[in-house]
Amino acid sequence: MTDTSEADSPRASGWTTVRRVGPYLWPDDHPWVKRRVVIALAVLVVGRLISVITPFYYKAAVDALAGDGVSAAWMLGMGAIGLTVAYGVTRLMAVGFQQLRDVLFAPVGQRALRQLALETFTHIHRLSMRYHISRKTGGLSRIIERGVKGVEFLLRFLLFSIGPLVLELLMIGVILALVFDIWYLVVVAVTIGLYIWFTFAVTEWRVKIRKEMNDQDTDANQKAIDSLLNFETVKYFGAETREAERYDSSMERYVAAALKTSYSLAFLNFGQSLLITAGLVIVMVMAAMGVQNGVLTVGDFVMVNAYMIQITMPLNFLGTVYREIRQALVDMGDMFGLLGQPAEVVDAPDAKPLDVTGGEVALDDVLFGYDAARPILKGVSITAKPGETVAIVGPSGSGKSTIGRLLFRFYDVSGGALRIDGQDVREVTQDSLHAQIGIVPQDTVLFNDTIYYNIAYGRPEASRAEVEEAARAAKIHDFVTSLPDGYKTTVGERGLKLSGGEKQRVGIARTILKNPPILLLDEATSALDSETEKDIQDSLKEMGQGRTVLTIAHRLSTVAHADLIVVLENGVIAEQGTHDDLLAKSGRYASLWQRQQSEEDAA
What is the domain partition of the chain in residue ranges? Predict the structure, then answer.
């Protein structure tokens, strides 16, 4: 079988990822989103202008108190106290506009987050069975979780951190050049340039380390989820210590990678502080010399200091934001790579809804293999006429369950055709196909919800009376009503709070409620004890009345009543006929029958 590991999913590039997010911020079909984005950006610009003006009030207040720059202070018509109050008001206004911007943008970001999460979830359900059985659920959920968080971070910081930072740096640079001297701007520009170069270079190095840490985190998470899903198996084999050691081994590799990440972060932070401090000291020395020479006032000195602090704070933030944005792009790239995975089975452009008039199922010279080098079905032709029960039997690996997967079109046939009432399943919509087929598998897997929810899953719009009627038909209503919480009883993870027979009856009730014209029974009773099996078989026979039934079975006694029995062996039909006809032939079926009867008698 083709392996589709996490590494095989192509990761979208950074710019591709940013472009993919763009339409969610500027959708053509939602003008209110555009209005909010525009207003939020306008508020952002006003807030930054106020933030840049604020140090002027600080300078004026200091000059007023020091007796310098009196004309500038009195031009504003305020004393030192008024200027100090004005300084506080502008600082408050800058924060207020920032919060207003966040409030305006929050619905836009949350809408985009919800849409992307829904798109990813929906796409995963569209992917083929081949894809899902070769993926590890823990790793898949981790990719989605990190990707959605990355989208949220990117929307919040890329638009309202990097953009505002660049705008603020430009405005402060212009002020330093005009109010003071061009050399102030040169020192600040060189400092910022070196800072950005150092930050980006070290961060790119750290991204590789972070990727390794993520891989180890994913691996540990996969092992934990896999172990918990197989809780009973672990208990059966007394493997708790083994599983703990296996998980701890993964965590050990994760810790090693996490330590590398921490050490590299310390190096990055120290280097950033060194560059920023050097720039700050040089500019402050220049300002101090200006004050000593009488060119600048004490207010100018504190204003330069205020601007340098104003630059330093967002630059420190830039380091964090860039690292996180870079990581968010990696995480989102994984998620968009997942979205880029093509669905193996898709509806044809001109696909029509399946029209079931009688329910005839026909396999016409079907060829199929999960791997092209290892064919499973080698020209199988079977016809189940409307209302007939056709049993497919044979040893393990003969291709019995594969026919069921082809019927649901989890895979497409490699050759030949599978038709329902003469309609090739490749030419009808998958939704309509699935709606016309019901299944009772060997192990009915239930949602971790109530019994009522699990039965109603067959037809969510059904009334309570219809749900209970389906439960009666499956002979489980009395059991459910005997429980303290009745239909509100939760069944646990995968239905583990119920016995095998109880789970099967819930599955039968669910399929009865669906009321499909075609029914697939895939080893539906092979995992049950003999007494429970007989009861379930009776329920299945009642459910099959008036329907076309395909029964895949290992135990021949459960299908002796079938209208047609097909014996598969090595992907071809060895023989077919009724139970009596096949016994009379004394062939493969008769041999299997006699062997199973001997085993049952011996038991």
Answer: 12-339, 353-436+519-603, 443-515
Report, as an integer, the average pLDDT of 297-301: 84
Residue type, 271: G
Fold of domain 443-515: Rossmann fold (3.40.50)
| Residue 421 clears pLDDT 70, i.e. is over it | yes
Residue 399, SS3 per DSSP: coil
Task: Please name which of 416, 423, 439 lies closest in space to residue 572, comparing C-alpha atoms.
Answer: 416
pLDDT digits (tens, 9 = 90+) for 237-256: 788 888 888 888 888 888 88
**What is the structure's pLDDT at 16?**
66
CATH architecture of structural domain 353-436+519-603: 3-Layer(aba) Sandwich (3.40)
> Which pair of tokens denotes residue 106?
């929050």
- Sign of the alpha-carbon dihedral angle for 570, 574, 579, 580: negative
Structure tokens that stand for 22 in this block: 């763009």
Residue 269 is predicted with a pLDDT of 83
Nearest residue to 520 via CA among 543, 486, 536, 497: 543
> Can you name the CATH fold of 12-339?
ABC transporter transmembrane region fold (1.20.1560)
Q: How many residues does the chain have?
A: 603
Q: Residue 71 has what pLDDT?
A: 43
> In the chain, how long is the greatest CA-to-CA distance?
120
The H-or-E segment that residue 18 falls in is helix 14-25
pLDDT of residue 70: 47
Find, among 198, 197, 196, the residue nearest to 311 by Cα: 196
Q: Which amino acid is at 467?
A: V
Range list of β-strands (E), 318-396: 361-368, 377-384, 389-393
Q: What is the mean pLDDT of the chain?
A: 82
Average pLDDT over residues 537-551: 84
At residue 130, what are phi and psi to the nearest 5 degrees?
-55, -40
Q: What is the CA radius of gyration of the chain?
A: 35
CA distances, 196 to each of 154, 199, 266 (Å): 19, 5, 17
In degrees rounded to 5, what are phi and psi of residue 399? 110, 10
353-436+519-603 and 443-515 in the same fold: yes
pLDDT at 461: 92
Instruction: With CA atoms as reference, report the closest residue to 101 among 52, 45, 165.
Output: 45
SS3 content of the chain, % helix, strand, coil (to 5): 65, 10, 25
